[in-house]
Structure formats: C-alpha cells, structure tokens
Amino acid sequence: MGEFEIRLTGPTLKLLKLMLEEPAKKRSGAEISREAKIGSGTLYPLLVRLERVGWLLSEWEQIDPKEAGRPRKRFYRLTANGYNKAREALAAFQMEGTPAWNM
Question: Measured between alpha carbons, how far is residue 9 from residues 67, 71, 72, 89 in Å?
Fold first, then answer.
C-alpha cells in the first residue's frame, strides 16, 4: 500500500491532529480512541494503514501481563515522515478558518 492510498477522512484528520500535539509521545490505542473520539472499529484499521505507509511506528509495552494484571498495551507515535505528512494533510484541509476535522 502506497501513501497515496491514505484517505484523509474525518477520523484520519482527528488522529493526525492529536498525534501532532505531542509528536514524540507514545500513545496507546485506548488513549487515542478516548482523546480523538474515534471508535475502535475505525481506529485500529486506521492505525494499521498509517503504520504500513510509514507515518506511524508502534511497539508493545515492555511488561509482564501476569505481574501487571492486565494485557500489554501497544503504543503508537509519529515517524519523522509521518510528522511532515500529517502537517501537510492538516494544512490542506484547513478551510476558511474552520478545520475540516471539526465539521
């Protein structure tokens, strides 16, 4: 899948906007879902697509699930290319002072 295949939908723009707020921060899927208000059925396929084209990196939390008493979390963050592409995408969808992701 090439980067030209990324559809810049409302949920995609919300995700990119959130990730740009703190580009180096690693965020779990649950945190992204809660903060960007994107349902898991939309979010997780989107995260996979963005990772495939190199906009995001992901890694598993380094814990023992038995000791923690919960499953491990997967954390996502922007790549350098993802940062640039996200900024370009959000700038392209800014419409007359009202961001497209807020419409």
Answer: 39, 30, 29, 10
Q: Is the domain covering 3-93 a CATH 3.40.50.720 domain?
A: no
Question: What is the C-alpha separation between 27 and 47, in angstroms, rounded?
Answer: 11
More confident: 7 or 16: 16
Rg, C-alpha atoms of the chain: 14
Mean pLDDT along residues 81-97: 84
Q: What is the identity of the amino acid at 23?
A: P
Secondary structure (3-state) at 61? coil
Q: Strands, E, within 8-90: which ranges?
A: 27-28, 56-60, 74-78
